[in-house]
Amino acid sequence: MSTWEKNIRRVTPYVPGEQPKNTSVIKLNTNENPYPPSPKVEEALKNMNPEKLRLYPDPTASELVEAVAEVYGLEKEQVFAGVGSDDALAMAFLTCFQTPKPILFPDITYSFYDVWADLFRIPYEVQPLDDSFLIRLEDYKKENGGIVFPNPNAPTGLLMSVEQVEEIVRANQDVIVIVDEAYIDFGGISALPLIKKYDNLLIAQTGSKSRSLAGMRIGFLFGSPKLIGYINDCKYSFNSYTMNCPAIAAGTAAIRDQEYFQQCTQKIIETREWAKRRFRELGFLCGDSMSNFVFVTHPKAAAEELFTALKSAGIYVRHFKTPERIRNYLRITIGTKEEMDALFMFLEQYISTDRSV
Q1: How many CB atoms lie within 10 A of CB 70?
Q2: Angle 245-256/39-46 helices, nearest 10 degrees?
Q3: What φ, ψ does residue 82 adopt, rounded to 5°?
């Protein structure tokens, strides 16, 4: 080892879903929205003056923050805008979890949580989901340095009620509780109203999923003005100009077009419910996902082999080798009806062939 390497911070990085260069494939592996952004996004980008690009963007992203606050019925001081919810959540980890006590999150969940914890040297303990892949509320009522969990959870897609979320928050008012609602728009009820009741609660949402802006990287945190103020202090100490001008313009247009947003999410919900029925008809075990993806396994088809066969056929899905409990599951994004028809056409033929795990 070189001498200088002794001073390097080493972490095991997050592994993102594959982004194939071939655009003719059916891409159901990274939970992107299958529909384009609001037409008002295209209009906003076309009307943006390129002269603005020689100037630094508004460090507060005030146009976007004010639009979000208006649509969600909040004060602008309750909104933090970040470069995707990953950036926003990373800032939340950095700001809120300065503790010698371990933070808590599920063992099967968004796999960036342990990466951020390792990066920022935050101690953590994972809490096992039960046999049905559900969070056990009692696991989050012990001493800790903070809590984070997605709702709906990823990659399972399973949803907790607002009452269950509040039970965790109520039991942990001496630490920060982060509820990651990246997929809440696909059938869940947001815990957002609880931020008026609990000043230690932070809600994360994203423009990547329900608003079709994954390529723009726009995410949000909602919380008490004091808590959002602390996160902004860390953000401005790290990089003042995090959100660029096109992202601010696109995000503002997308947020304000509520009608298009509702139309798109409704189409995805309808396709998802139909897809769950089709998976079960083919013998898959399919949980009651309330997200824009499903989490499935088949007793006669090894997940890794099916993943490889689908990829060879030009259909990309996600397979996780760890934790061991989900090794035989696939996470499949809900695409358009035509894309899902193609997926099921392949699966019908594949499953009809005699196989065993």
Answers
A1: 12
A2: 150
A3: -130, 175
Which pairs count as long-range contacts for 281-285, CB under 8 Å and 24+ apart, including other chains? 282/344, 282/347, 282/348, 282/351, 283/351
DSSP class per residue in 187-227? T---SGGGGGT-TTEEEEEESSSTTS-TTT--EEEE--HHH
The C-alpha atoms of residue 127 and residue 106 are separated, in whole angstroms, by: 5
206 residue type, one letter = T
Evaluate whether 244 touches 34 at the Cβ level (below 8 Å). Answer: no
pTM score, whole prediction: 0.96
User: What is the rounded CA–CA span in Å between residue 249 and residue 216?
Assistant: 10
* First and final C-alpha spacing in the chain: 43
- Please give the average per-residue pLDDT across 102-111, as a whole number: 97
Judged by average pLDDT, the poorest of 4-8, 100-104, 224-228, 313-317 is: 4-8
Helix (H, G, I), strand (E, B) or coil at 127: strand
Tell me: pLDDT of 357 over 50.
Answer: no
* Structure tokens, 115: 């990466």
Q: Which residue's entry shows tokens 């002269």?
A: 51
Asked whether the predicted pLDDT for residue 315 surpasses 70, the reply is yes
Per the prediction, the chain carries an average pLDDT of 96
Amino acid letter, residue 202: L
69-96 pLDDT, tens digit each: 999 999 999 999 999 999 999 999 999 9
Confirm if 102 and 123 have CB atoms less than 8 A apart: yes
Nearest to 206 by CA among 77, 97, 333, 292: 292
